[in-house]
């Protein structure tokens, strides 16, 4: 969780560096290589370089938990809207993606948060799957990295301490917003081919995320990484309208449209009738690269408010 700041040289208490699993190395060509880079395997020089760039980055992006009082002050008089990622944020990272369960304690906390503030979960999973994991009805869900959103179909405002109901359209049904709908037939096709292609690679798993597809390699032996990546890339060669992005030991295939978690945040703010309000404090908690799209979205929103 980060908190954007602009106070120049002032020294900020720094969190312990724990991003051992997925440090970014812009020079690594392979997706799998990049996402499996491990700091302890790096040369001393590389490690120092990565740590020092992290050090300087953290000065402008300090841990929100270390600045909690400041965060609370910033919230005075503001309407808070909460956005949450699922995997690695509400649930622990586990080997089997189908077993990434959320604890009852976490569910109770999210339930309480959603009682007081409009709350949305924005996940890379399919919307139904993440909802099945979370099992709460008093919040909004977006799946497929924001490409499948169940938002209010009309502005809904929070009244202090009251539950917020999911808005319904005039037929009484919920209405999803799905900007990548036209890609669905191609996604089904990619899913079918990929399942077939990676079958021979021990530990590889293909997950149907609705408007995107995940190819997991957490349980794949290192010697098979290259073969797996080749297979995924060869499937994509026939589908130039899709792109490959990376997460935590997962390759994600998604439609190449300009729509990500950041756009989903903006969409929620719009449908909640809050996007042009100056008195809002959106809070986003996430752990993965795709969550950075949302963080960038917030920077654009706050720049818009100061114009
Ligand atoms: O946006 P998120 O909700 O964080 O979803 C991103 C991906 O999360 C899941 O994969 C990750 O968690 C799994 C369970 O802990 C783990 O096995 C995997 O290695 C992680 O990458 C999900 O399964 C993916 O489909 C999502 O894209």
From TrEMBL:
* Enzyme Commission number, as recorded: 3.1.3.12
Q: What this chain does, per the record?
A: Removes the phosphate from trehalose 6-phosphate to produce free trehalose. Trehalose accumulation in plant may improve abiotic stress tolerance.
Q: Which PANTHER family match?
A: TREHALOSE 6-PHOSPHATE PHOSPHATASE (PTHR43768)
Q: In which pathway does it act?
A: Glycan biosynthesis; trehalose biosynthesis
Give the protein's cofactors: a divalent metal cation
Lineage, top-rank taxon, reads Eukaryota
Q: Which NCBIfam families match?
A: HAD-SF-IIB, T6PP
Annotated protein name in UniProt: Trehalose 6-phosphate phosphatase
Its family remark reads: Belongs to the trehalose phosphatase family.
**Any keyword Hydrolase?**
yes
Q: Name one GO molecular function term.
A: trehalose-phosphatase activity
